[in-house]
Amino acid sequence: MTLINIAPTKSSLLTLKHQLAVAQEGYELLEQKRQILVFELMARVKRAGEVNRQVDQSLASAYSALREATLDIGSRALDEAARSVRLDHRVQVESRQLMGLRLPGVTASTQTPDVQFGVGGTSTNTDLAFQRFTGSLPLLAELAELETAVLRLAAELRKTQRRCNALDKVFIPNTRQTIIFITASLEERERESFVITRMVRDRLGKSEP
């Protein structure tokens, strides 16, 4: 621990005691924030893992149908069929507040995938691939939201942890040690002043006729 460079006076002592009280209160608030961030981070990490597995399964199924459709009608015919699709998909991004931190809220609204292709020129697998890829969009939007939130929560958690450590390991112990030092210095001065005052009184008393 290191003493704070400040004059050992009563005014300094009062200032340090006030700063210590504020620091302790700030540390408690930061610790509460840290615990909330840990909880929110772990919950989103767990959910992101679940959604990631769902996305993998959904896209694997969609690509499987796409491969079958390619074998059925060929890649060129499949490209032409894809260019004829007309659906209105929307992605909405909002901002949510958590402990002063802005977290994204991402939702994907997909139009109901009706039949998009004619009877000729495509196959059942073409419709199936189209439906499966469309069905994957909400999961992809949720995964994007979760991964972005995890990154921001992790960064905020690191910053909060550094502040907690600075208060708990450096500022608060140094301030306490400095308060102890100044208190001892002031008490020593008071004792010295008392002794000097007593000596002066004794000498004055002896000098009286």
Radius of gyration: 35 Å
CATH architecture of the domain at 25-164: Orthogonal Bundle
**Helicity, as a percent range:** over 70%
- Main sheet summary: 2 strands, antiparallel
CATH topology of the domain at 25-164: Helix Hairpins
| N-to-C order of helices and strands | HHEEH
As a percent range, the share of strand residues is 5-15%
Number of helices: 3
The strand order across the widest sheet is 1-2
For the record, what CATH class of the domain at 25-164 applies?
Mainly Alpha
User: Which structural class best describes the helix and strand composition?
Assistant: mainly alpha
Rounded mean pLDDT is: 87
Distance between the termini: 56 Å
Overall geometry comes to rod-shaped
pLDDT under 50 segments (min length 5)? none
Q: How many beta-strand segments?
A: 2
Distinctive features:
209 residues, 75% helix, mainly alpha, two-stranded antiparallel ribbon, Helix Hairpins
